[in-house]
Amino acid sequence: MQIYLDHSATTPTRTEAIAAMHRVLTAEWGNPSSIHQWGERSSTAIEQARFQVAALLNANPDAIAFTSGGTEANNQAIMGVTNQYSTPQHVIISSVEHSSINAPVEWLATRGWQVTKLPVDRSGRIDPQDLARAIRPNTVLVSVISAQSEVGTIQPIAQLAAICRQHQVCFHTDAVQAAGKVPIDVRALGIDLLSISSHKLYGPQGAGALYIRPGLELIPLLAGGGQEMGWRSGTQAVPQIAGFGVAAELASEELALENSRLIGLRDRCFELLANCPILVPTGDRWQRLPHHLSFCLHIPDRDTSASVTGKTIVRHLNLAGIGISSGAACASGKLTPSPILLAMGYSQTEAVSGIRLTLGKSTTVADIDWTAMVLKQILDRLVPQLVCA
After folding, report:
1. What is the spatial distance between Cα 345 and Cα 337, in angstroms, rounded to a whole number?
2. 180 Cβ neighbours under 8 A, 6+ residues apart
3. How far apart are CA 4 and CA 81, in angstroms?
C-alpha cells in the first residue's frame, strides 16, 4: 500500500496539465517572441495561461509575470524592490519565512540594510500590531508568508497589508503554499506583490508566477530580451506555463469542494492521533491550511528524545509505504533544528522532531485511518514507555 502525504513538498502533475504540456510540445513549440505563426501559437498558449493564473488570484492578467518557480518569484520581489535604492533602507519579514525570502534578505543585511524579523506566537501567528510598531520612516518593503509550509499556520494577510497601505510601504507575500488551497483575492487584500508556484497546485515543476500590482516599479533580476513585459527576460518555458495555467484554472473551480473534503480528512487524522501523548500538534489549529497536519515529539526521556527525531519517523513510515516529511522539503536533508519551530518557542530537541502530513486530491479516509494506525505502531516501538492508545 502506497500513501503519499507530502503534498506541501510537491503535488503530482494532473492529467489535464500534462495534456496541455503535450499539446504545446507537439504543436505549439515555437519561440513565443517570434512574430510568425509558429511563434504566435506559442505566445497564445502563454497568454491563455496568464489569464488562467490571474483568475485564481482575481488579478489583472497583465499583472502576472511567469517565473521558474516560487524561489525566483520571491527573489524577484525582494530584490526588485530593494535594488531601486542607492543606499540601504529597512525591510521587515517574519521569523517564519521560507529560505527563499530569508536568504536574499540576509544578503541585503551584509550590504548594510536594516532588517527586522517579526516574532510569532506559539501557533506561528504574527500580531499585526507588531508590524505597525516595526515600520520606520525608511521601511521600503514588508514580506510575510501567507501560510507556513512546516506548521500550516495562515497569517492575517489582510490586516498586515492594510497596515502597509496606511504607511505607504510595499507589501509582498509568499503565497506558494496558500494558492489553490485557500481563496486569494489580491485586489480585495490590497497586496502589492505575491508569489505562487505551479507544482504546489498539481501543475508541473519549473513554473511559477509573481503578481505585480499595476503601477508598481520593479527592477528585473535578469537582463536580456525583455520577455514577460520586461519583468523577466529569457525565453519562456511554454509547456510548463501551459500546464500551470490549466492547473490554476482547475484549482479555482474545485477549491471550495476540495477544501471541505480535505478539512474533514485533516480533522479526522487529528482526532485519530489525539490519544497519542508523544505527538504534540504544532501550528494554529484553526487558522490553518485545509490539508495540513504537523506535530513535534514530546519525549520526557532525554536519551530517547535525542535518538528519535522527525527524520526517524519519516524513514520508518517510508518503509511502510507512507510518504510524509520532516520540516520543509528544501531543508529535508539537514539534521538541524527547524528555525520555524525555534521561532515559535520550541526547544532544540523539539525542533528536530517536527513532522508534517499534507493531504491531497488522492487522499482517502482509508489512507488516513491506515496512516494513523501505522504511525501509532511506529511510535509504540520507538518509545514504548509512552504507549499510544
Report:
1. 12
2. 56, 196, 200, 201, 202, 247, 248, 251, 252, 255
3. 38
Tens-digit pLDDT profile for residues 14-30: 999 999 999 999 998 99
Classify 145 as helix, strand or coil. Answer: coil
Please tell me which residue in 170, 296, 330, 388 is annotated as part of the active site.
Answer: 330
Strand residue runs (E) in 306-380: 322-323, 355-358
pTM: 0.94
**Integer angstrom CA distances of residue 235 from 46, 119, 194, 327, 331:** 11, 40, 22, 34, 30
Domains and CATH numbers, the chain: 3-9+256-381 (3.90.1150.10), 15-251 (3.40.640.10)
The answer to whether residue 330 is catalytic is: yes
**pLDDT tens for residues 298-313?**
887 666 666 789 999 9
Per the CB < 8 A criterion, the answer to whether 188 and 58 are in contact is yes
* Intra-chain end-to-end CA distance of the chain, in Å: 24
E-strand stretches of the chain? 3-4, 64-67, 90-94, 114-118, 139-143, 170-174, 193-197, 208-212, 279-281, 292-297, 322-323, 355-358
